[in-house]
Amino acid sequence: MFVGQSLTEFYDVVFIPPKPIKYKFYKCDSKFWVDDIKKLYYSGNKYGLVVISGHFYQISVIELIDDVCNIQSKYTNHIKLQKKQKKGGQSAQRIGRIRDENHHNYISIVLEKMETIFEEEHIDKFIIAGPSTKKEELVKRISEPEQILKVLTIDDFKKDKIQNLVIPIIKAYENRDDRVLVENLISNEQMFIYGKKEVKKALARKLLKTLVVCQSIIKTKNVDVDKLMLVCQSMGTTLKIIHNDSELIQYGGYAGESWFAI
């Protein structure tokens, strides 16, 4: 609960985060300290979003937990590009060339800013959206097009509208990745370990290269993900939490890939 008072009115905000708050924090200040609360909404899987038009561009980071979508803007810039030259005359071609150079430089600036922000945020998959041909020009100049999840044509830049568009795209991508991961895991019988008891034993003995846990198990069994992540890090094991768990749930919701054949 957040309670405050402005010069004219008293207000309060109540909400329940998707994860439990594990410790108390008290600080009397002129602002609300919400960094630790914001972390409760982070899934660990980040995606990029670039919205571009002839008037502005915005680069954001998307984090999705179930149906809760957090879009955090990292950079926004409004610009004014020269329109096409309609009048004739001796200078028409020169003005046209300057216009083309400005548009080319604009895309270069967006690309450079994208690369900087996505590298800082450890993002390798992103969505490009916009109403005009600018997004198509941007797509053509992406050096690794396989990083693009989707190219969207939009003319409404309201946050809730964009959220409704990106949620199914990211879920479809994560579900596809989950299926491939589980299929590869199960097919490698000599390295496949399953069941909570067997997986826990292998993890304690540092035998696991990868630990896979179903999201549904985490919810129903109240698994402490942060604690599990720390344990995996100490054992040199990569932790994967999958959302499309229909295949793995028959193995108890826990599975692992060992470092060598068992």
User: Low-confidence parts, pLDDT < 50 over ≥5 residues?
Assistant: none
Arithmetic mean of pLDDT: 83
Query: Which CATH architecture of the largest domain?
Result: 2-Layer Sandwich
In CATH terms, the superfamily of the largest domain is eRF1 domain 2
CATH class of the largest domain: Alpha Beta
Order of strands side by side in the largest beta sheet?
5-4-3-6-7
Q: Could you describe the 3D structure shown?
A:
The chain folds into 2 domains: 45-175, eRF1 domain 2 (Nucleotidyltransferase, domain 5, 2-Layer Sandwich); 188-258, 2-Layer Sandwich (60s Ribosomal Protein L30, Chain: A). The protein is built from 7 helices and 11 strands. The chain has helices at 35-39, 92-120, 134-140, 159-187, 196-204, 215-220, 225-235; strands spanning 2-5, 10-13, 46-52, 56-65, 68-78, 126-130, 148-153, 192-194, 208-214, 238-242, 254-258. Strand 1 and strand 2 form a beta hairpin.
Overview features:
26% strand; 11 strands; 2 domains; 4-stranded mixed beta sheet; 5-stranded mixed beta sheet; alpha/beta; single chain; 60s Ribosomal Protein L30, Chain: A; Nucleotidyltransferase, domain 5; 262 residues
Which helices and strands, and how do they pair?
Blueprint: E1 2-5, E2 10-13, H1 35-39, E3 46-52, E4 56-65, E5 68-78, H2 92-120, E6 126-130, H3 134-140, E7 148-153, H4 159-187, E8 192-194, H5 196-204, E9 208-214, H6 215-220, H7 225-235, E10 238-242, E11 254-258
Parallel strand pairs: 3-6, 6-7, 9-10
Antiparallel strand pairs: 1-2, 3-4, 4-5, 8-11, 9-11
